[in-house]
């Protein structure tokens, strides 16, 4: 049995090798950049107007209107002192323009422009290179591509990006009692649901599974199922069959498939019988079958490794501290990740902490960490991971 910190350290210390691929911009969200990006040109590439209004030459209160520049126009108007042109947001500002005045602060009579106030030098002109200059580093290697990153990369004219590949993930669920939703079931059977939580959590963080298999509690079937799953994945996530019962065959089947155990059993609630192993460059998590145990272990242990394997700089969910709303004492006998709700900056530990209880987790939005035997009074700070 290892502690939570030891288990996380073992995962974090794994040597990994990353692969890369070219992704169209459209599909690059959530990937980490494989290489540093250098600006191929200034952004913006030319001085342009921040407003619909008038580009002015010199600082006056009256100007002669001599033309118009719209967004996308490439014509150059040679302005002289006291002259102005009609201009629109994003349009190239004439070289000699001193400022742009928004149209709400102007009036026009015939071809004379009158300003309500004196202009300031550079006012409403977005300067060439104001955001990036040619040759400047746009993003470092490993930068995580979020929507604004994609906007910036698009504005640089890049249609595809070299990114770190994401791991290929297979899921196995185990249990004779499990029936696929939608199928008839008999007394003693239950509907399989952990795989939906796992695949949902994968999707929540931009991952997809490659293959999902349901295996009976049978040693040979488990061994063969694991062998097949390992033929096509970087990370194998197994649910159930990892405890000490007579029908728990996962651990032995992993051994017989050449998977080396890195840890088995973590002093925590839920998810005590969590297993982590490795076969060359493949990683295996066997998550305890209780629904809340398997999903909690996913957020706390699986996600950080998936992030690392995707080349992210920051791995796993961030821990925040919130004051607790009602007193709480952890009498579960193990350090605990508790189903909790963070509302208006306070955290509430929810009813329904059993490892088989998933409703409380579904209604909440956080996992609150409370140490074994720890007593929390109103307002004490609690470490929380936000899960939705
Ligand atoms: N003698 C002991 N028994 C148990 C121990 C122990 O230390 N000694 N640990 C308990 C803890 S803690 C957990 S957690 C569970 C983990 O057991 P397994 O990982 O072997 O999981 P299963 O026995 O296969 O299933 C547990 C529970 O979860 C339900 N389940 C399993 N898979 C699914 C699924 N895909 N969808 C929905 N529900 C699922 C299953 O029906 C069981 O009720 O072991 C305790 N026992
Ligand atoms: O550790 Mo188990 O996950 O309490 O039910």
Automatic annotation (TrEMBL):
<dbReference type="Pfam" id="PF00994">
    <property type="entry name" value="MoCF_biosynth"/>
</dbReference>
<dbReference type="GO" id="GO:0006777">
    <property type="term" value="P:Mo-molybdopterin cofactor biosynthetic process"/>
</dbReference>
<dbReference type="InterPro" id="IPR036425">
    <property type="entry name" value="MoaB/Mog-like_dom_sf"/>
</dbReference>
<keyword id="KW-0500">Molybdenum</keyword>
<dbReference type="Pfam" id="PF03453">
    <property type="entry name" value="MoeA_N"/>
</dbReference>
<dbReference type="GO" id="GO:0046872">
    <property type="term" value="F:metal ion binding"/>
</dbReference>
<keyword id="KW-0479">Metal-binding</keyword>
<comment type="pathway">
    <text>Cofactor biosynthesis; molybdopterin biosynthesis.</text>
</comment>
<dbReference type="InterPro" id="IPR008284">
    <property type="entry name" value="MoCF_biosynth_CS"/>
</dbReference>
<dbReference type="InterPro" id="IPR001453">
    <property type="entry name" value="MoaB/Mog_dom"/>
</dbReference>
<dbReference type="InterPro" id="IPR036135">
    <property type="entry name" value="MoeA_linker/N_sf"/>
</dbReference>
<dbReference type="GO" id="GO:0061599">
    <property type="term" value="F:molybdopterin molybdotransferase activity"/>
</dbReference>
<dbReference type="InterPro" id="IPR005110">
    <property type="entry name" value="MoeA_linker/N"/>
</dbReference>
<dbReference type="InterPro" id="IPR036688">
    <property type="entry name" value="MoeA_C_domain_IV_sf"/>
</dbReference>
<feature type="domain" description="MoaB/Mog">
    <location>
        <begin position="170"/>
        <end position="308"/>
    </location>
</feature>
<comment type="similarity">
    <text>Belongs to the MoeA family.</text>
</comment>
<keyword id="KW-0808">Transferase</keyword>
<keyword id="KW-0460">Magnesium</keyword>
<protein>
    <recommendedName>
        <fullName>Molybdopterin molybdenumtransferase</fullName>
        <ecNumber>2.10.1.1</ecNumber>
    </recommendedName>
</protein>
<dbReference type="InterPro" id="IPR005111">
    <property type="entry name" value="MoeA_C_domain_IV"/>
</dbReference>
<dbReference type="GO" id="GO:0005829">
    <property type="term" value="C:cytosol"/>
</dbReference>
<dbReference type="InterPro" id="IPR038987">
    <property type="entry name" value="MoeA-like"/>
</dbReference>
<keyword id="KW-0501">Molybdenum cofactor biosynthesis</keyword>
<dbReference type="Pfam" id="PF03454">
    <property type="entry name" value="MoeA_C"/>
</dbReference>
<comment type="function">
    <text>Catalyzes the insertion of molybdate into adenylated molybdopterin with the concomitant release of AMP.</text>
</comment>
